[in-house]
Amino acid sequence: MNQRISVVEKILDANDQIASENRAYLEAAGVFSLNLMASPGAGKTSLIEQTIKNLSRDVRLAVVDGDIATSLDADRAAAAGARAVQINTGGDCHLDAIMLRQALGQIDLCEVELLIVENVGNLICPANFQLGTCQNVLVASTPEGADKPYKYPGVYRGVDALVINKIDLLPYLDFDMAYFRRGVQILNPGVVTFPLSCRSGEGVEAWLEWIRESIRAFRARYGSNGMAKHVRD
Amino acid sequence: MNQRISVVEKILDANDQIASENRAYLEAAGVFSLNLMASPGAGKTSLIEQTIKNLSRDVRLAVVDGDIATSLDADRAAAAGARAVQINTGGDCHLDAIMLRQALGQIDLCEVELLIVENVGNLICPANFQLGTCQNVLVASTPEGADKPYKYPGVYRGVDALVINKIDLLPYLDFDMAYFRRGVQILNPGVVTFPLSCRSGEGVEAWLEWIRESIRAFRARYGSNGMAKHVRD
């Protein structure tokens, strides 16, 4: 058992080292980046579509899409108007920093201000693998049920922002928002939260404004991408 | 890379060996068993609650509940009236045959006709680890979206039955049932399918009848559990 733990720790150490390099590379390039995590079908791709639709006039966007088998999500991001790079994990249940590094090699970062990485649909393993993005975001969804923070604490604990998608379905569900929020507060006190519906558009503006603000704060700290002056500082 | 594949293959071979032993043990004991797999929040626990509620007068039931952190699901199964054993995977994203073997040691199988194993909420890794149950069942849910068979082919390919939960939400979703079913047919032609709603109860009776029929067929092949004569042959 100790041997196994030691192997797992070495894998995670190696991943963290490459994640640090990715982070430094993205900061030097002036690219603000998000790692979106969620269970299958919570709405990562829909959120990316909404983000592209609303921000692509002001912000140059690229998407890296992790999937175990298809390019369906990258196709949707590309159709919505973003540069999209597909990572097929070949069955692996999460992205890791090496996969992101390889994907970054396929993107001209001079052309990018905002990079969104869509992780594999899974609430467990992606939480253990830092990619090197500036922020980690979890997309929860109301039909999943209000007990998810309690049952999947790792991913709730580690994120910088939480989207609660599909609030348009609340009238048709027994979703106890107070219980859900209590779980979130225990694990991640004060985390910024965006209840919204990608389908109806309700609440999406607050999410977009958070991205705009985050890009401004990122630039104030790391400088702009020389080619990218679309969001006013 | 070859070394990694070889390690993974050895782990899966060892798992399959123990799964075979679990299968033989359950067959010898006359216990029909199901492995329920699904994404987080698709409704595995709700389906188990419905099954206990409707079958526990006729069938002696036990539940083994896999979870990464809590005993919330086992508590719900116990509250619904079944013998429930909790497996905390300690962060692991799936159950394996060794975990099930350990859990079986805590159950008096003479008292059991139907064993339901609730796997960890994850559409990817559980598909790679046979547990040794008689049947594998996938619980899909309509809010997850109709593209899931295409995106998570492994789990759709390997199951003996498919539950499509939350059909009560169909009027409020853009779920393309024909597209979903086409994907299922490509991966798993003719798989028995149960569209239902654990919330409204619609469609649940067909699922229950499938379990009753499966128990009868299992007994015709492997014999009854000596202590268990509740379902008429």
Describe this structure in words.
Two copies of one chain form a homodimer. With 233 residues, chain A is α/β, with parallel strands linked by helices. The first copy, chain A, is 41% helix and 17% strand. Chain A is built from eight helices and seven strands; from the N terminus they run H-E-H-E-H-E-H-E-E-H-H-E-H-E-H. A seven-stranded parallel sheet of chain A has the order 3-2-4-1-5-6-7, with helices on both faces. In chain A, strand 6, helix 7 and strand 7 form a beta-alpha-beta unit. In chain A, helix 2 runs parallel beside helix 3. The C terminus of chain A is likely disordered. Chains A and B meet through helix 5 of A and helix 5 of B.
Largest interface by Cβ-Cβ < 8 Å: A-B, 36 and 36 residues
The ordered string of helix (H) and strand (E) elements of chain A is: HEHEHEHEEHHEHEH
Shape of chain A: globular
How many β-strands of chain A, per DSSP? 7
Largest sheet of chain A: 7 strands, parallel
Distance between the termini of chain A: 52 Å
Helix content of chain A: 40-55%
Name the structural class of chain A. alpha/beta
The averaged pLDDT of chain A comes out at: 93
- What oligomeric state do the depicted chains represent? homodimer
Tally of helical segments of chain A? 8
Strand order across the biggest sheet of chain A?
A: 3-2-4-1-5-6-7
Low-confidence stretches of chain A: 227-233
Rg of chain A (CA only): 17 Å
Strand fraction band of chain A? 15-25%
